[in-house]
Amino acid sequence: MKPEMKTNLRKFFWHLLMAVCVAVYAAGLALACDAAGREDFKTFWAFAESDVGRMALKNTAVLAGVLILTLYFLVRRIWLAMTLVSVPALVFHIISAFKMALRNEPFYPWDFSLAGEAANIVSSGVTLSPSKVMLLAIAYVGCSVLVALVLDLLILRRNRPGWGVSLTVFAALALAFYSLCGQWLSEDYVKAHTVPLRMYNQRQTYRENGFTYAFASNFYEAQMDAPEGYSASTIQPLIQGSTGSEGSVQPNVIIVMSEAFADIWNARNLQFDEELAPTYLALAEQYLSGGCMTNEYGGNTANCEFEVLTGYSTYQMPNGIVPYMTYLNQDTANYTSFLKDRGYTTLALHPYQRTFFSREKAYGFMGFDEYYSEEHFGQVERLRAFQFVSDDAVADRIIAEFEKNEPTGKGFFCHTVTMLNHTSYYASDWAEELQVGMTATCELSQTEYETLRSYATGIRYADAMLKKLVDYFSRVAEPTVILFFGDHQPSLGSPGYELMQRIGYVADNTTPEGILALQSTPYLIWNNFQTEPTAAQMDLSMFHLVPYMTRMLDLPRPAFHGYMDELFELTRGVTRKVSLDGDGIPVQSLQGEAKAKFDEYLTLVYDGLLGEQYANADLYE
Q1: What DSSP string describes 32-56?
Q2: 489 Rama class: left (phi>0) / alpha (psi -120 to 50) / beta
Q3: Closest CA to 413 of 360, 342, 365
Q4: With 0-12 CB in 10 A as exposed, 13-18 as middle and 19+ as buried, what is 134?
Q5: Over the stretch 7-49, which tens digit does the pLDDT of each residue have?
Q6: Mean pLDDT over all residues of the chain?
């Protein structure tokens, strides 16, 4: 046998052996990553034994193996090819597990656009501890790459094929990988071979389908298609008869979305040595108040303000997606633009990073004249370990902007998002003398106790902000309305809602009543112009808040609010997990006429946000 042939056979043998080893490694990688991305080994084992699980793990292993070999023939270092595939795969699974613990939600395709924001918050002090399974998975990848490095240096380095052969095999493998992806990750394949996506319970979807296929399902679901038969001719009949009005009073309108403001004082197993929200509770008895429902829990603040400002529900959007970032890419009619067209000065205040949740882009499309973010607050009071701008300083800025606007004679609209009580919560957030006293009649770890106490202290500061604003505008001659509400429940710990149930905030987090409490926050609509204030307790969705306010106080309102009145008669609120019927009774889902009307409303949401905006001329003229 010629020496050249012997050399080629030797190279072929070692690369064939390498391919077999890569196949075995890829199978282990698929198992290790999936296990690392779960909350416990029990759910992993149940998944691995299921038909969907076997399919998903097999396909993931084959794709990983082919990709590793493809990259090897490009970079010609097997340890490097393994690293380039393994590290991102493992990191995504671990991020999903951490996110599940912190937010009760897995890692979604659109979370890539939130990477900067997440890093900023995590770097501020959130403590994340890897599980034993995560550490084992990291060890498996690390040791395997180390072995591959040694073998590459001792054997493969002397048996690499020439560049011509390498690039030819690379092209063939790349084509094979592309073909496999086109087959196994196609929308048709995903829908035919996996458990249907549960938008209302993504945690279970990821358990049953595994990370790869649940992730792929969400990728396809993120594409919002036009409703069937969508056209100008089908939109017009939906809005006939909807009317607006200029109202009997044209007040200044101040909206304050208070970070994580929730009624933790109602937790039966916690006792505080002082009233956490005396101002809110006193005013709630005299003015419009209640609970406002949201699809969010523990985060995604921007989605809550999106619903309030636009009147558009996020119900039909995939869990975790942020319309400010993904869908809001054109001028979008809303209450801000409506008031701007009537001569109001329109301002947005948020004492955090300007690009957070793409607010700068979104506010421009929504009609705000100015947007003041953290860099515009200067040397003001900052509190907690994170050094967030205080609620008191934000109240001062609202008042200062109002006084600056007074000489113009224009109406004043100010939308504000606070930051002070943002997760996470630690004993080090506040000096001991500033913290509220708290005792518990349930079992709490030291960390849980400190978390709850810090959070409760932040509620007291939020209530003090409300008091400062009400005290000031009570003395102002111009009619003024303040809409004050919490964006979502706080993220107090893991797993899921367990802590909220243990402290007695809810008795059962699986009943419609329990889910309603967890998906709602308090709101208050105060005004300084009614001699006998309208006092009413009403639970409703955030997308109903502004139409409800304009109707109850006879404020300027677009015809869109007239349409929302019709919807309100049939359903006062809708989230993915619980709804309110026309009488305000919690139900699992809408039925009959209420469901038909809500589906019709979602068509208008599509038209105004992503469609041709056929209805705008009639709803916002």
Answers
A1: HHHHHTSS-HHHHHHHHHSHHHHHH
A2: beta
A3: 342
A4: buried
A5: 778 778 888 999 999 999 999 999 999 999 887 888 899 999 9
A6: 90
